[in-house]
Design a protein that fits this description.
Chain lengths: ~800, ~650
């Protein structure tokens, strides 16, 4: 870096404040908390609106034998003749038989009363599921889910031994089977279908298994190391058998010898190694899997967004900046993947807080009251902070979208700004926008820090108050509150002592800390919701031109294209077309001529249904264009645009852009007609030459012919050429037009109809009909000779002007 | 139609396929920055260049780092002891030892305060200190966070602005090949890697070392003979590095593939949106959506693969670290079993082991974590390093009074294609000179030589007798106005569009040029008149109207030399006539060079230069050239009026 660059760079670096806001964001691009329109309900609604994009990953799709996997999403419960009537009897049998034969303890003592009670509820709830519908079905589904989860928790936590866990595992599996496999017993025998692709269910199922694996590992390690190795107690019989040291079991001896312990040292390593060999790969796979699932959800939303955007009319696009579209598609849509996380954390934290609060209250209602009291400042803070989180997030997102637009627009017109020495100005504008984006980001982040500071301060003060209170009680040896309830929870704190201190201050800290976390997480959720808002704002826009419900595919035309009193305006006070009447028959060339701004291109835009007319209609063979499906209509009209649009791909891909299936032969033929074959052949990489998105490697004339070739390769019955030869020299123009008319009259092909917009007399004269357009109306029409005969005719004047006044026509 | 996601997820896990995809993608991502391979040497130099940026922020950096370290050190050293006081002397009510035994020396002055006090008084003191401690910690953290985020902003703003400038200053011919999406991705996404590199190289080791040293120090002061534990914990570092290092290149390649795919994704989105009129007219909505889906699925897939490669590598490192842990466990358990250590010691020492292993692992992981950002950093620096427009001239061009003289001028593209050969002609102020010839004859190339968008490779090109190459670019271009063939509207008001090349122009001037190109009447009829905002994908104006705005934009600059590249292609003959008359007016004290195909335009110029295949075949006035029998120009005219 030379000295000048260093000074320059230092200047840039110092523009950003050391800390603090920097220059205020311009009012037009700023929002204050008062501008917030979302509110709590709106945020929740936005989060819920994502559900349709997440749901397919939960419900999956049906795999039917002989048919394969269906494209549509599977139903939540049943439907379309399929059912799972086998499930309730199966579950009932599985629930009754093991206790009946004594495989699981036949006891109604605590905790078995709780356990069997939950099982009974679950079994009862299975019966309405396949047999009833509506609200009862939904309620039983929810109750079934809750009771099964609770029963599983009871089996694992409260009941010793693994038989009850296995018993309940079987019941759970049977319930799930009803969800995964469904039968259809109809007249043509038994059919079945299997639910596949329920990725989120697989993922959370596998995560659960992995979590239990790690827990088991931890328990075994602790058991071996703490009990047997550190204090020489023998192993529990089951564990001893499992890890292959039966001689060290509790049933064989009372204590371990030093030699045995020396040998046993290797056991934890073996256990860890064995389990890790399973769990590590699973961990990696699951990480990859969840990324895949989230990306897929995001991908679906992105596609919906792009699809909608592409369908919005040009009127919308004229007012919308491209950079904003990029930002919404790339960054804002990403927030959909955070919704599940928000939801999950919210549920876990709520459970944590409620449990901790209950346990604390048993020990000391005062402490419970303190925890409850923390809710007050939290709510006040939330009321203050949430609207600010929302508006600041929006401002930040808008600022970054603006910056992206600035980049896109600057680089789009970079040649111009170089030639007109506007570089320093666009540099300044860019730097301003960049600073605004950072300032907006800073304000959003600072709000987060501030909320963090406030939450942390009061939480910690409350936590320490609690800890000091307990310390005081321990010091005085005071009794705890509901001793009997405490015993129920499996604890034995009768008076405050050291372990009661440790245990309760930990719970207390968790409860208050989690409250703060909920607030912070909700603040983040506002940002997520604002990203979603920007996505759904676009998805909520209805395209002006869209298919009718009964739209029919366009079949090509045989008789005529008829414009009947067609009127159109981009905005009400600026009419473009004002009652066009015109009939065109197949196999003819129609030239549309007239002063610039007369509405020539607009007429063609209406034919393509880029817009629908405000008044009147366009008919093809008597059918209003609006009856046709847009895509099929546009497929049958090939257009060479006036502005030569090229895409950043190879020449081959550019030519077959709208007809991806076209082979090299067709492409070469089209290039030949457009007189571009030689130029392409001269390029070192030929058809494979990559073009920049502004086609910098080709001259304008070449680009124009490429655009023409793109229309020709489509081989459509209607061809629209908007100034196809404006950038061509006369010689090339002649060759192109000659090729074109030969191609048009190719007897092998159907009769093509051509619309030609041009100023060039040589081109116009080849037309069968000339339509002279002026101020949105057809002023004159007829062939060249007819129109030239009109004294003081508009067309005649046009031709004279074009040929230069001296040239006689 | 398929959403491209699933099919894209299947198959293509073969390494060969991956490599191929990658090369194709690199080619697609940018046509300007093509040498994309990074070897180890380059990686180091990239990291070094990121670090070198610190000098611009060293004050902020010193503040952030010292605040961070102080916070960590004080936190680890002091916080646990407050808990000990609370438990031992309040909860359990034990009196404090008279000599402060069991507490580190640096806390003794504080501990002495508490000696002899009742548990309740100790509790009150503790409460006071806690409140003060919490307040200090929270505010300290807040200030640190603010300064830190501004540090990142400052760095990003600087790099991003310089990147913008770097791209802006590329030669005009290169810019045609630089996809906009690629530039956007570099400036918005890739730059974010730079603060990451610095954080990984400076802040992470800083934090790790402080934690490590504190843990070692505390452990050794409590268990002086636990040196082996330190050895095991720190020993994990080289093992981790040795195991993971061979994968660094793979991760770097994955990261490069990810950013390349991200670029293509942004480019595809940008193209689809910017060319929306073409997309809709061509009925290509479904095709464009599919193209987008492919780019998106591809970007996602590569991102996943990068995470996968990185995770697998890190897991391998972790597993190797486990072996050392197991070794330590065997050794410690032996000590417990033989009675050299108590079970309590075992737990404490292992706790310290983990406290040391964490930062040690973070240190060992540095190299792996740097690979991803290195790939992005390369794209930023590569753009900054690209050769910018050469400024070789220093002379100031006085206002042009005579004209431009070509003398044996030739031009050969860098790839060896010849565009112009032996071009000789004079163009004088007061003339309209038309450049005529078939497409691809080199007309635009020739015109580009005058404002030095291209530099002539042979011969002499002089303006008022001064060699163009000797004139400073700014001085040269302030006297030459080029109206490009492709009409371009900016997302600004019509008035601002017109005065783009002369921002200080008054409304009168704007209206005057608008009148001279015959668009004033149209503009005033618009509801918002000159303040009507245009979009970039604007459908508000017809091409002919845009073309006239472009010309007005050129005219308003009022320079002695005016070059118009096909200014009238989309105009109807009457407007064209009107415009040419206006240009004749303008040309009275200027040099106007027009590239045109239209006879009506050409025939009214003072002099015609007929070019073919890069050579001047004929030159003279319309009448002179028409007089040449079987002349190229004559044939050209006949073809057009036929």
């Amino acid at each position: 870096m030379d000295k000048e660059t260093i000074i320059h760079a230092q200047g840039l670096a110092d523009t950003v404040a050391f800390y603090g806001e920097g220059d205020p964001i311009p009012a037009s691009r700023d929002l204050s908390a008062k501008d917030d329109t979302s509110g709590f309900a709106a945020v929740v609604q936005l989060l819920i609106r994502c559900w349709p994009y997440i749901l397919p990953q939960i419900l999956g799709r049906w795999w039917v034998p002989g048919v394969g996997t269906e494209a549509r999403m599977a139903e939540l419960i049943g439907g379309r003749g399929y059912s799972f009537v086998y499930m309730p009897p199966l579950v009932t049998l599985l629930a009754v038989i093991p206790p009946y034969f004594g495989f699981v303890p036949e006891s109604l003592e605590y905790p078995f009363n709780l356990f069997y009670g939950l099982v009974a509820i679950a079994v009862l709830c299975t019966w309405p599921l396949p047999n009833l519908s509506g609200r009862v079905q939904l309620i039983s589904l929810v109750v079934l889910l809750v009771s099964i989860i609770l029963a599983n928790m009871v089996a694992v936590v409260l009941i010793e031994g693994s038989t009850s866990s296995i018993y309940l595992g079987l019941i759970t599996a049977a319930c799930l089977a009803g969800w995964f496999v469904q039968l259809n017993i109809g007249s043509d025998g038994l059919k079945y279908r299997i639910r596949v692709g329920t990725h989120l269910v697989y993922y959370y199922g596998l995560s659960l298994i992995m979590g239990m694996g790690f827990m088991l590992l931890g328990l075994m390690m602790a058991e071996i190391v703490n009990q047997s190795l550190l204090q020489n107690e023998p192993l529990m019989p089951g564990l001893a058998a499992l890890i292959g040291y039966p001689e060290m079991s509790r049933s064989v001896n009372d204590a371990l010898t030093e030699a045995q312990r020396m040998e046993l040292r290797w056991a934890p390593i073996k256990v860890e190694l064995a389990l890790f060999l399973l769990l590590w790969p699973l961990e990696i796979v699951l990480l990859y899997y969840i990324i895949w699932i989230f990306q897929r959800i995001n991908h679906t939303l992105r596609l919906a967004l792009v699809d909608r955007w592409h369908r919005l009319s040009l009127r919308h696009h004229a007012d919308h900046r491209v950079g904003d579209a990029i930002w919404r598609i790339q960054t804002d849509s990403e927030t959909v993947t955070y919704v599940l996380k928000v939801l999950g954390e919210f549920v876990t934290m709520t459970v944590t807080i409620v449990t901790a609060l209950a346990l604390i209250t048993i020990l000391s209602p005062l402490l419970g009251l303190i925890v409850t009291f923390v809710v007050v400042p939290t709510m006040i803070l939330a009321r203050w902070a949430m609207p600010r989180f929302r508006t600041r997030s929006l401002v930040e997102r808008m600022a970054n979208a603006d910056l992206t637009s600035r980049l896109q627009e600057s680089f789009r017109s970079i040649k111009l700004s170089k030639a007109y020495q506007a570089g320093p100005r666009s540099q300044k504008q860019f730097e301003q926008d960049s600073m605004i984006a950072f300032n907006a980001e800073y304000r959003h982040a600072r709000l987060g820090f501030r909320v963090g500071v406030i939450v942390d301060t009061y939480s910690e003060l409350f936590i320490f108050t609690g800890a000091f209170l307990i310390a005081l009680w321990v010091n005085r040896g005071e009794p705890t509150f509901a001793t009997e309830l405490i015993a129920l929870a499996g604890l034995s704190f009768v008076v405050w002592n050291l372990s009661a201190f440790r245990w309760s201050s930990e719970r207390f800290e968790v409860a208050i800390g989690s409250l703060g976390e909920v607030l912070k997480m909700w603040g983040w959720a506002q940002d997520v919701a604002m990203g979603l808002k920007r996505v759904f704002d676009i998805l909520d826009m209805q395209p002006e031109v869209c298919d009718r419900e009964d739209a029919t595919p366009f079949q090509g035309f045989k008789r005529e294209i008829r414009f009947e009193d067609v009127a159109f305006a981009y905005s009400a006070d600026r009419p473009i077309l004002n009652g066009i009447d015109l009939t065109v028959v197949p196999g003819t060339i129609t030239a549309i001529v007239g002063p610039s701004g007369a509405g020539k291109s607009t007429m063609m835009n209406l034919l393509l249904r880029l817009f629908d007319p405000d008044r009147g209609a366009i008919y093809i063979d008597g059918h209003d264009l609006r009856e046709f499906a847009i895509d099929s209509l546009r497929k049958n009209i090939a257009i060479a645009l006036q502005e030569n649009v090229l895409f950043g791909m190879s020449i081959r891909e550019n030519v077959r852009y709208a007809v991806p299936e076209a082979g090299d032969e067709r492409i070469n033929q089209a290039l030949k007609i457009a007189c571009l074959e030689e130029s392409v052949a001269m390029l070192p990489e030929g058809l494979d030459t990559m073009l920049g998105d502004r086609g910098g490697r080709l001259s304008t004339g070449q680009r124009q012919r490429l655009s023409l070739a793109r229309a020709i390769v489509r081989d459509a019955p209607i061809l629209v050429l908007d100034e196809p030869t404006a950038a061509l020299d006369a010689d090339t123009e002649h060759r192109v037009l000659a090729n074109l008319s030969e191609w048009t009259r190719d007897p092998a092909a159907q009769n093509r109809t051509i619309f030609l917009i041009t100023h060039r007399i040589s081109t116009i004269r080849r037309a069968d009909t000339i339509v002279y357009l002026e101020a949105g109306r057809v002023a004159e029409r007829g062939d060249h000779e007819t129109l030239m005969r009109i004294e003081n005719g508009r067309y005649r004047a046009f031709v004279q002007a074009e040929s230069g006044k001296n040239v006689d026509v | 139609m398929s959403d491209r996601f699933t099919e894209d997820s299947k198959g293509s896990l073969s390494l060969e396929q991956l490599r191929e995809d990658e090369l194709a993608l690199d080619k697609k991502a940018s046509l300007v920055d093509t040498e994309t391979d990074i070897d180890y040497k380059q990686t180091f130099s990239l990291i070094w260049r990121c670090l070198a940026l610190i000098r611009f922020f060293w004050r902020r950096f010193v503040v952030v780092l010292s605040m961070e370290w102080i916070m960590t050190a004080v936190g680890t050293a002091v916080a646990p002891w407050a808990g000990k006081v609370l438990v031992d002397h309040v909860v359990l009510g034990q009196p404090l030892p008279e000599d402060g035994g069991g507490y580190p020396a640096f806390l003794l002055p504080v501990i002495e305060l508490l000696i002899g006090l009742s548990p309740i008084s100790i509790l009150s003191w503790l409460a006071l200190w806690t409140v003060v401690g919490v307040a200090v910690r929270v505010i300290w953290g807040y200030v640190h966070d603010l300064v830190e985020i501004r540090l990142a902003h400052s760095l990003l703003h600087m790099v991003r602005s310089r990147l913008f400038e770097g791209i802006r200053l590329l030669p005009i011919t290169q810019l045609d090949n630089q996809p906009i999406g690629d530039s956007v991705f570099r400036a918005m996404t890739d730059v974010r890697a730079l603060p990451n590199v610095i954080r990984i190289v400076v802040q992470v080791p800083g934090w790790s070392l402080v934690t490590l040293v504190t843990a070692v120090f505390t452990l050794l002061s409590a268990y002086p003979d636990a040196k082996l534990v330190v050895l095991f914990a720190v020993g994990a570092m080289p093992v981790y590095v040795l195991v993971t290092a061979p994968f660094a290149r793979m991760i770097r390649r994955r990261a490069q593939a990810t950013v390349a795919a991200g670029t293509v994704f942004v480019s595809t989105t940008e193209e689809g949106m910017d060319n929306i009129q073409a997309v809709q007219s061509l009925g290509a909505n479904a095709i464009e959506k599919d193209r987008f889906a492919l780019a998106s699925a591809d970007a996602f897939r590569r991102e996943r693969f990068q995470v996968l490669a990185q995770t697998v590598t890190q897991k391998l490192g972790e597993i190797s670290g486990k072996f050392l842990y197991w070794g330590l466990m065997l050794y410690m358990l032996k000590n417990v079993i033989t009675g050299d250590m108590t079970p309590g010691d075992y737990a404490v020492v292992l706790g310290y082991f983990w406290a040391m292993a964490k930062p040690a692992e973070a240190l060992a992981d540095l190299w792996i974590r740097l690979q991803g950002p290195a790939a992005s950093a390369r794209r930023v620096f590569a753009m900054l390093d690209l050769e910018q427009e050469k400024e070789i001239g220093t002379a100031v061009l006085p206002p042009v009074t005579q004209g431009v003289a070509f003398e044996g001028v030739g031009f050969v593209y860098p790839d060896g294609r010849r565009a112009l050969a032996n071009v000789t002609f004079d163009a004088r102020v007061g003339e309209i000179v038309a450049l005529v010839g078939p497409t691809g004859a080199g007309k635009t190339t020739l015109a580009y030589l005058i404002p030095r968008y291209h530099m002539a490779t042979e011969g002499h090109l002089r303006i008022d007798g001064l060699e163009v190459n000797d004139i400073a670019i700014d001085s040269l271009r302030s006297q030459v106005t080029y109206v490009f063939q492709e009409t371009e509207t900016l997302a600004e008001s019509i008035a601002d569009n017109i005065r783009f090349g002369k921002p200080e122009a008054t409304m009168e001037e704007v209206e005057r040029v608008a009148k001279s190109v015959g668009i004033h009447d149209f503009i005033v009829k618009l509801p918002e008149g000159y303040e009507t905002r245009l979009g970039t994908t604007s459908s508000k104006l017809s091409v002919g109207q845009k073309q006239r705005i472009s010309i007005a934009r050129g005219l308003i600059r009022d320079t002695p030399i005016l070059i118009l590249d096909e200014p009238t292609s989309a105009l109807d003959p009457e407007t064209e006539n009107y415009l040419i008359s206006a240009l004749q007016e303008v040309a009275r004290n200027r040099l106007v060079i027009i590239i045109a195909h239209r006879l009506s335009t050409i025939s009214r110029s003072d002099r015609i230069i007929f070019l073919e295949a890069g050579e001047v075949l004929e030159q003279g006035s319309h009448e002179q050239l028409m007089a040449i029998e079987f002349g190229r120009y004559q044939r050209f005219v006949e073809l057009q009026s036929a």
